[in-house]
Every structure is written in structure tokens, then in C-alpha cells.
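Let's practice the habit of predicting before peeking. Look at the sequence and jot down your guess about where helices and strands might fall. Then scroll down.
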Amino acid sequence: MNIVTLQTFLTIVETGSLVRASEKLNVTQSTVTARLRGLEETLGQTLLNRQKSGATLTPAGTKLLRYAEIMTGLWRQARQETSLPKGVTSVCNFGCHVDLWPGPGRSFFEAVNRLSPTMALAASQGEHEALERQLGSGLVDVAMTYRPSVHGNRTIHALKPERLVLYATRPDNPIRFTPDYIYVDLGEEYRDQHAATYADAGISRVSFDSAIWALDFLLANGGSAYLPDRLAAPHLASGTIFEIGAAPVFTRNTYLVVNDHAATGWDWLPDLVRELAE
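Done guessing? Here is the structure:
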């Protein structure tokens, strides 16, 4: 087993086809097939169901997927850190929930770039589970997330909570449930608060688990949705959407999770955390 073989396996899973994987990797289909067969023979398990419609994971393939992602990710990180350009002395791998990048995530990344000019930086996005895996495996050194996990070698810093406000494309949009209301799943605490406040509401026809996607859909199709005020601010200023001022306002906590070992020598971190928390 080698990294190229694992990368080939991941590419097949990503594209859903041996043919498309060969095109993306710029190798022949027979090469892709040989790599996959060799991997399956090494493990003694069938990893993918090959059909005319494409390739799907078997239970064994599903188990391998997580380890393959970690192993190839660690290899990329090892190559990066062992081949740092001249003048670069350290590395910071930053993971960020996709909804947190506009605003606090980008501000953190740009501040680190400014405060630590000899540090190589890498940023990656992910949902809660992916960020947790990346922190656990060492693929990321610090993560900005809504749902941190307590761990012995990590420090969790509470940042400024988000304000979740009801916005609509019409200023006279009613507060109560409407047919064009877009439900945004903003976490367990928000779900409980929303359910208690709008107990009489029906089930929304359109829903998203990303505030960014929900905002994009709202702007294109109209309606109303609860969104972080920082995301809505530019469109509010331009008059594209309106705040429904009488509607309840919710909050969502945000956190910066730091690998303590990786953060040794990060003298700039305490001041930056205080800035993000204000």
C-alpha cells in the first residue's frame, strides 16, 4: 500500500467512476483498476462495488475512507512542512466551518498572516465532524467551529456569539411562518429555540444546513430566513433584503479550538483571541 494507491481510491470515491478518476488523475483506466485491485488484495476486502452506473463504497470501503483521508492529508502536511521555503520557520494549518469564513474566519487567517510573517499558512473548510477528525489527526492546528469537543491537548476559546436575525426580501414580510420561509439549520441549540418560539409554524418546504447557501437562495428566489447578521449586512445596506425588526433574535456560539502542542510559541494568539471575542 502506498500514498498514490490511497489517492487513487479517494479520487474514485470523489468522482464516482473509475473512468472519471482516470481522467482526473491523467492515467489510463487500466492503471486505476490495477491500483484499486492491488489495494483490495492487500486488505483482503472488496472496497468498491463496480457497476455500469458507477462505483459505490462497500462497508469495508466506507471504513477505509476515513483513514485514507487522514493518511493522505498527513502526507500532504509532511511534504509541506519538510519543504518550507527559505525564511519560513513554522506552519499553521487552519480549519474553518464554511459559514464562519466570511468575517471571523477570514479575519483570523489574515491576522495570523500579518502577525507571523515567517509562518506558512494553509486553510481548509469542513463541517463539525470533519474538523473534529482533522484536529484529532493533526491535519489542522486550530479550528473555528460552532461545536467544539473537549480534549486533553486542546484549548477552547469562546468567541463573539453570532446574532441570528430574521431577514426578508420584502420589508412588510410577516413575522410568523410564511410559505416562502427558508429554514436554516443552525445547530441544536438554535433548533430548540426556534421550535419553542415558532411552535405553531408548519414545516418549511425549503431548508439548508448552510447559512451561505440559504442567503444565496434567498437573494435569488425571495422569501425570508434567519441568518447571521454579519452575512446579511452588505445586502441589508444595499436594500436587497430587510430586517424584520419585531421578530425574535437568536444567538449562536462560536469557538476557536487550538491544539496546544502546535500553538507553542504563538505569542500573538492571546491578543487575537481577545480581539475576536469582543
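How did you do? The chain has a mean pLDDT of 88.
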